[in-house]
Design a protein that fits this description.
single chain, alpha/beta, globular
Length: 603
């Protein structure tokens, strides 16, 4: 139920409602609806402030024209100058569009009723009886093969029948679900129409050329959050076998979720041993060493975490942070990473066996799923599991933002960046990741501001200099980019990223010979440096075939920098090439907006 919150100056309870208004104004100011509309934001702030003050005179058209739009009250004619009516109308439309798609539903909405300049504050209240039940949605067959529609239909019907026989409350008949799907597209609307708390949605996709992947998700209807994902792969000829194999696992997980025992967090079933205080202090020291963003500091962090796993092998924290520290060490790309990847996965497996919902282990495993295995869907689900357990875990939130940007989901990307800032507004790590991401989104002015904040926060790592250089290069300021790349190489001569940035700048300035000479020197010292960077240099030198071949080689060796590289302006001229599109699709890039590697921290 909803109802307007009426304010009267000095009335009892006004401060509580006013706090809700302030909270919603802060949300709106950071949202896409008003963040880039300063005039609308200023107008709304004026109207809300005068409404809270119960100043009816200030909410008349002449007063608004004077206070907000600086019109002369002696000469203002509302009939000849409709600026107040027009701007308020546009603001009203913005707010209505925002709230129509806003999830989760805010505690309070700000409305501008037609024919009035007096805002209304509509507070959301929970319904007396929350919805109960499960609806199995139709399977989305995105393979392009209509012959598989029968297997999709069989799976949805069989799953609904099995859930009903398992005793779940209110399993909606499939015919009713299909009818409702024709009217309601979003999970929130579909759940509301069917009166259920849970939706089971499934997708059948093509994996490589001859394999099929069936992915099933349990979705909360009220917030559209994915609580868990189950998936399996089979050959083209085994579609019905794939369906049968999935049923038991899905029924068991759905039973646990509806009963409250499986929220997707993998909550522990009993008390887990914790690190003693002295060991916890050493683990905190390792985390701080990682935040130095240096090879020496990260090596020390790995050594500390490894010693803790030897001394306390039955605690999940030690294994989870060891994996996180090893991943941070791997990002320097100065040595082979195959063994490191195996060790990281072994450590996350140990952590998750001890504590299935450990957010740090989930985050590290999700990174490898997304960047190494190119399984974007599974990675996103795992990041969201980690964040449901620990919403303030900004490293996981920044990695999720990166993943969303890979899909071209810019609005959701910005929402996650804003949340990271809210949880940790003074974190240099957050600003560093934000600067990288804004540069990749080609919002160069905002990226420059974020780099400046990193410097103000004391950041002096190679990631800052190289990242800022790539931002300036993308913005077209080659001189500034060249100076930053030269500074990076002077300060960090042993960093392959600094060496590579120098080669990129040579190529950008049209000196192909110097670019390739620098590239050869970098690869001689660091033979395992990212293959995708060779493609960047070749593209900047105008060597189309060499660039495409290098991208294909990067895909074949599961280059963990490939997704980031694909969004660089160097490849704009190749974006329409079938070979380029094939690489992008295979590694999970669905949009031209690609997120950066977040080197910010291991946690």
């Amino acid at each position: 139920m909803t109802g307007p919150v009426h304010h009267t100056g000095g009335a009892a309870g006004t401060s509580v409602a006013a706090a809700l208004v302030d909270e919603e104004m802060a949300r709106l100011a950071a949202s896409d609806v008003l963040r880039r509309a300063p005039s609308h934001r200023r107008l709304l702030q004026y109207l809300v402030d005068r409404r809270l003050a119960d100043d009816a005179t200030a909410l008349r058209e002449p007063a608004i024209a004077f206070e907000v739009f600086r019109r002369d009250p002696a000469t203002f004619d509302a009939q000849a100058d409709p600026i107040v009516r027009v701007t308020v109308g546009r603001l009203r439309a913005r707010l209505d569009a925002h709230y129509a798609h806003c999830r989760p539903v805010p505690r309070l909405r700000i409305r501008l009723p037609k024919g009035s300049y007096r805002p209304e504050f509509v507070e959301s209240r929970r319904a007396a009886e929350p919805p109960v039940g499960v609806a199995v949605q139709s399977v989305r067959n995105v393979t392009g093969d209509g012959a598989l529609d029968g297997a999709c239909l069989a799976f949805a019907d069989a799953l609904a029948d099995r859930l009903a026989r398992a005793g779940l409350p209110r399993v909606i008949a499939r015919a009713s679900v299909v009818e409702a799907e024709g009217r309601a597209r979003s999970p929130h609307k579909l759940g509301a129409e069917l009166g259920v708390a849970w939706l089971v949605e499934s997708t059948l996709t093509r994996e490589h050329k001859r394999d099929l992947r069936l992915s099933v998700r349990m979705v909360g209807a009220h917030d559209a959050a994915v609580h868990w994902v189950e998936s399996a792969i089979a050959g083209d000829d085994d579609a019905y076998d794939l369906v049968d194999r999935m049923l038991d696992a899905i029924v068991l997980r759905a039973q646990a979720t509806v009963a409250g025992g499986d929220t997707g967090h993998g909550a522990a079933t009993g008390a887990r041993p914790a690190l003693p205080p002295a060991a916890r202090a050493r683990l905190d020291a390792a985390r701080l060493l990682v935040l130095q963003r240096s090879i020496k500091g990260t090596d020390e962090a790995v050594a500390i975490a490894a010693s803790l796993t030897r001394e306390h092998p039955d605690t999940a924290d030690g294994w989870a942070w060891l994996a996180a520290a090893m991943y941070s060490r791997m990002t320097f790309q100065d040595r082979a990473d195959e063994d490191a990847q195996r060790e990281i996965r072994a450590s996350t497996a140990r952590a998750l066996a001890l504590e299935p919902g450990h957010p740090v282990a989930l985050r590290t495993e999700a990174i490898l799923l997304g960047r190494r295995d190119y399984d974007i869907e599974a990675a996103e689900a795992m990041f969201r599991r980690a964040l449901r357990t620990m919403p303030h875990y900004t490293s996981a939130r920044l990695n999720l933002a990166e993943l969303l940007a890979l899909q071209g989901r810019a609005g959701e990307t910005r929402a996650q960046l804003n949340l990271a800032l809210i949880y940790d507004p003074l974190s240099v790590s957050v600003q560093l990741a934000r600067a990288h991401l804004l540069g990749e989104l080609r919002e160069y002015d905002e990226a420059r501001e974020a780099w400046a904040l990193c410097r103000a926060g004391g950041e002096a790592s190679v990631w800052l200099l190289v990242g800022a250089a790539m931002t300036e290069l993308g913005a077209g300021d080659i001189a500034a980019a060249d100076a930053l790349a030269a500074d990076a190489l002077a300060r960090f001569p042993d960093s392959p990223s600094a060496q590579n940035a120098r080669a990129i700048l040579y190529a950008a300035k049209g000196d192909a010979a110097a670019a390739h000479a620098q590239e050869r020197a970098t690869r001689a010292r660091f033979p395992h440096f990212a293959q995708s960077q060779r493609a960047v240099i070749a593209a900047l030198c105008g060597e189309r075939d060499a660039a495409l071949a290098a991208l294909e080689a990067a895909l074949a060796c599961h280059d963990m920098s490939l997704q980031q590289a694909l969004g660089m302006p160097a490849f704009d001229a190749l974006a329409g090439a079938p070979r380029f599109r094939a690489v992008a699709e295979r590694c999970g890039v669905r949009g031209r907006l690609v997120a950066p590697s977040v080197h910010a921290s291991a946690g």
